[in-house]
Write a structure and sequence with these properties.
heterodimer, A: 451 residues, mainly alpha, Cytochrome Bc1 Complex, Chain C, 6% strand, globular, B: 327 residues, 2 domains, 5-stranded antiparallel beta sheet, 6 helices, 12 strands
Chain lengths: 451, 327
């Protein structure tokens, strides 16, 4: 049976040598190497649930009146898009499960990518010969954030509309061309024309998924071509040999098991843990907004930045060079992503290390990189936390304005402090290891002397 | 002894298909416990799969979403469990070592370079040829992108400064009823649209305004906005000048500990505006004040616009201060 299947394939495709090599491909084993896999499997769940949702979603902002089963919204004017998502949530059987799983999968997808990025960054896995893999990865993260934002916006409930107008304003704030580009993209000023929704829809369900899927394939193929990095396991291990479990039969059940586990957890979340109950927010109108609105967590750093910037537009004569949202909405993410893109080259410049590396470092082995990474992460995290000051005000009744005033200072001080601490911790850890090593050596010598 | 037995069995069983190569995988004994667990989990997954179908089919079930999610999620997790048992206990886990692929292939690189260089040897006017390729590719690329200009207008400033407000327009509420000055009470907050606007045109950023009434003694309008208030009632664009959200909070009469006086607030980034002095920014990121709409009260007591806004409505862009708003 198996022999016949193998022969069938080989005689028609001639790929058996490749198949055999693939089956014996070695996976170095470490839990942190699974983070990227989780992202991949969340992406599969996203595509599967997304395809299902396209059968029921209507990409139209045509004004309709709701007559569905959800009583509080009956008789309300809303867009056809919002009504179709209400129907997915209320009348399409299993629709709510699929929609919530899709939303959860998006959140987990981005979280997994970011944790994967941390692993790659703090171990120096992006170094030669894997620079291209890293650049593709960072690009995917950026595309994923945009893709998730598009999906969030398509629903056309109140929160999604508020998010969309903020995005529009951020686009508008780009110096010299912002208004022109946004008027072009939205087909006129906000809220745009009826062409906008089909445009966002095709971007969300075709253009971005195909881009992400293609980059993902290249990313994984390049990892396979170069083989995975590994941690040093013995003192004598060199950069030249990879040690690991072969794809088949050792790794395959584990990996596919992880895929099923990821999908299982996502469907459990989708069924049991409510996410974005869009019927509560009601339809979006430009003249309506709600207090206490928070975006999905992966955009929290941007809303925090938008809120932290003090009141000023950069105006020269009558020409507005930089409207305010530019700093938080464009400049801030540009700095973060610019750092991610440029860091490998900067590191090469600083250290002069242009060698090939298959062994990854522990964070402590490279205090400069670790300190810098911790500084940037702390910076983004603080801005993120600042974005939740309104929640803190509601919970603890701490003045919102004083919180923001404090954060405006803290976001510059704490990251430096965190970086300094991280640097020190790395050095101490390495020093501690040296002491242990020396002690062991001394003991061994003493033993040797005794015998 | 055991080795001999295994060898004998292998020989006996292997008689039919003569094995040419030695074993690929090392041998290991069976693990009946793990096997039973994996099989049990697989059947549990099947059972839960059936459960999903049943729950889907029975329309009258309460909490259907939760049951569907639980059935599907647990079914998938059971399969995951079975696979992980297979991976950890039932298949051979070898740790192998092999060399990493070579860092680079200098010989091959050289061959490719030579191939490309030699392939172009018959072309004598290289620069001209490259220019031709560049010109053809560049213009065709541009031509392919040109139709994307149909997306929308690239430069139409009237889009950004147009408003439906003009002299004499009455202010109406969401139900299209005209506001009388007497409807507007202190410490309350009203949304208004121009009379005659449709549901569609109310979505334009220039349409919605907020109305509040302040004690006349507290008004501190700058000279250029003198006469914009009517009997203590002031009207501002409802769209925040920062990121375009609707101003939907009015902190009045007080909001401790943050504000000592009435303030209009946008909930997106908490830009806070002072309705008493022409909408100046009290706090938050907004870079400019709220555009103000001049009001009048007609003989019957209805609120009417005395013109359009004094400043451009909506989030700031590069031309905000160049053009005045036009009706």
């Amino acid at each position: 049976m198996i022999r016949r299947a193998v022969r069938y394939l080989d005689t028609r495709t001639g790929t058996t040598p490749i198949v055999r090599k693939t089956l014996r491909y070695l996976f170095p084993d470490h839990w942190s190497f699974l983070l990227g896999e989780i992202a991949l499997y969340a992406f599969i769940v996203l595509v599967a649930t997304g395809i299902y949702l396209t059968f029921f979603f209507v990409d139209s902002t045509r004004e309709v009146v709701y007559h569905g089963p959800y009583v509080p919204l009956q008789g309300q004017h809303m867009s056809e898009a919002y009504r179709s998502v209400l129907n997915i949530s209320m009348t399409v059987r299993a629709g709510l499960l699929i929609r919530q799983t899709h939303h959860w999968a998006a959140n987990v997808f981005i979280a997994a990518i970011i944790l994967h990025l941390f692993r790659v960054f703090f171990t120096g896995a992006y170094r030669k010969p894997r620079g291209l893999i890293y650049v593709i990865g960072v690009t995917m993260l950026m595309l994923t954030l945009l893709e998730a934002y598009l999906g969030y916006s398509l629903v056309d409930d109140l929160l999604s509309g508020m998010g969309l107008v903020i995005g529009y304003s951020v686009g508008l704030s780009i110096p010299f061309v912002g208004a022109n580009v946004m008027s072009w993209l939205f087909h006129g000023p906000f809220p745009g024309q009826s062409t906008l929704w089909p445009r966002m829809y095709i971007a969300h369900v075709l253009i971005f998924p195909v881009l992400i899927g293609t980059l993902l394939t290249v990313h994984v193929l390049l990892v396979a071509m170069r083989h995975h990095t590994q941690f040093r396991q013995t003192a004598t291990e060199t950069e030249r040999t990879v040690r690991g479990v072969p794809a088949y039969p050792g790794q395959a059940p584990r990996s596919i098991g992880l895929m099923f586990a990821t999908a299982g957890v996502l469907f459990l979340l989708g069924g049991l843990v409510q996410i974005n109950p869009i019927w509560l927010w009601g339809p979006f109108h430009t003249y309506v907004s709600t207090n206490g609105a928070q975006p999905d967590w992966y955009l929290g750093w941007l809303i925090g930045a938008l809120r932290l910037v003090p009141s000023f537009d950069l105006v020269i004569g009558k020409y507005t060079l930089v409207p305010n949202p530019f700093w938080g909405g464009v400049a801030f993410p540009l700095v973060v992503f610019g750092f991610l893109y440029l860091w490998p080259a900067i590191e090469r410049k600083i250290t002069g290390d242009t060698a090939f590396h298959n062994l990854v470092e522990r964070p402590r082995d490279n205090p400069l990189r670790t300190a810098l990474g911790i500084g940037i992460v702390t910076w983004v995290l603080l801005v993120f936390i600042a974005g939740s000051s309104d929640r803190v005000y509601v919970w603890l009744n701490v003045s919102y304005t004083s919180q923001i005033d404090i954060y405006r200072v803290l976001v510059f001080v704490i990251p430096l402090l965190a970086a300094a601490i991280a640097h020190r911790v790395c050095e101490e850890l390495v020093a501690g290891e040296k002491v242990e090593r020396d002690e062991r050596a001394a003991e061994a010598e003493a033993r040797l002397a005794r015998t | 002894m055991r080795k001999y037995l295994t060898a004998a069995i292998v020989l006996l069983l292997g008689r039919g298909h003569a094995r040419r190569t030695p074993r690929v995988l090392p041998t290991a004994p069976p693990n009946p416990g793990a096997e039973a667990a994996a099989v049990a989990l697989l059947f549990l997954a099947a059972l839960l799969g059936v459960g999903f179908i049943v729950v889907y089919a029975v329309s009258s079930l309460p909490d259907q979403t939760q049951l569907l999610g639980a059935a599907l999620g647990l079914s998938l997790l059971s399969i995951a469990g079975a696979l992980i048992i297979v991976g950890k206990k039932l298949v051979v886990t070898e740790e192998l070592v092999e060399p990493y692929p070579p860092d680079e292939h200098p010989g091959e690189q050289e061959l490719v370079v030579e191939l490309v260089e030699e392939s172009g040897e018959r072309i004598t006017r290289r620069r001209l040829f490259k220019l031709g390729v560049g010109a053809a590719g560049g213009t065709l690329g541009l031509a392919a992108l040109t139709p994307a200009l149909s997306f929308g207008p690239l430069f139409q400033t009237k889009y950004f400064r147009g408003t439906p407000w003009r002299k004499g327009r009455r202010l109406v509420d969401e139900g299209s009823r005209p506001y009388r000055a007497s409807d507007i009470e202190e410490n309350d907050f009203y949304t208004a649209f121009p009379e005659g606007s449709t549901l569609q045109s109310r979505e334009d950023l220039g349409a919605p305004i907020v109305l509040v009434r302040l004690p006349k003694s507290r008004l501190r309008l700058p000279p250029e906005l003198a006469g914009y208030a009517a009997d203590g009632i002031v009207a501002y664009s409802k769209i925040c000048t920062h990121a375009g959200c609707a101003i939907s909070m009015y902190r009045a009469p007080l909001f401790q500990p943050d504000e000592p006086r009435p303030a209009l607030v946008c909930p997106c980034h908490y830009s806070t505006f002072d309705p008493a002095d022409g909408g100046s920014v009290l706090f938050g990121p907004a870079g400019r004040r709220l555009p103000m709409l001049p009001l009048a009260i007609d003989a019957k007591g209805y609120l009417r616009a005395k013109g359009t806004f004094d400043d451009q409505v909506g989030p700031t862009w590069w031309g905000t201060h160049i053009w005045r708003p036009t009706p």
